[in-house]
């Protein structure tokens, strides 16, 4: 019987037994959109140990090569495993030294194949991934689920963001968004998620990727309001008999 404990070796050592039988430390939603000059992506920095908000400084967005930006929700250790795979892919790509490099579409296709392959082995990576990038003036934004389901769109979200952020994006997104408008729209989505998602924390980062490269902001908090007038007058606006 195969042991579930990790054997000594490198993170990507194929001889090691590394199986996530159940997600333990997880991150919540990632929200991303296209704007006029590139891609904007937002994620908070919470890491939940079960239902406990255990970690408050988990970075879940990473640059991949020269042209791509990856964000992930779900199991943090599986995200680290994926980053190891992508490091090996980038190293192999650079070894050709042919003046070309992998674009966001190629990286996204690779990730969907990895997720689908692991799903078929009944050993999935417990993540939902968002991959955005810009290469030769072409903006690209797509997502991939833990079972390999994938698509491209002008705006994407994972986790609770699919239910709470996408309706906002459908109403307010347009293709000529400026950087400031895009950041404001993402902050609106993240504020709604903070209010409604118990796994969200008020410490987030927003990343952008353009032809010039990737920029990830320093962590910051959103202004929030937790007042509720009904506490002062619970019958205010009520109709009918009690």
UniProtKB/TrEMBL annotation:
* Pfam families named among the record's database cross-references: Proteasome
Report the locations given in the UniProt record. Cytoplasm; Nucleus
Print the keywords alphabetically: Cytoplasm, Nucleus, Proteasome
Q: Quote the cellular component terms of the Gene Ontology held in the record.
A: proteasome complex
Signal sequence segment: none
Identify its protein family.
Belongs to the peptidase T1B family.
State how it assembles: Component of the 20S core complex of the 26S proteasome. The 26S proteasome is composed of a core protease (CP), known as the 20S proteasome, capped at one or both ends by the 19S regulatory particle (RP/PA700). The 20S proteasome core is composed of 28 subunits that are arranged in four stacked rings, resulting in a barrel-shaped structure. The two end rings are each formed by seven alpha subunits, and the two central rings are each formed by seven beta subunits. The catalytic chamber with the active sites is on the inside of the barrel.
Q: What is this protein called?
A: Proteasome subunit beta
This chain's source organism reads: Prunus mume (Japanese apricot)
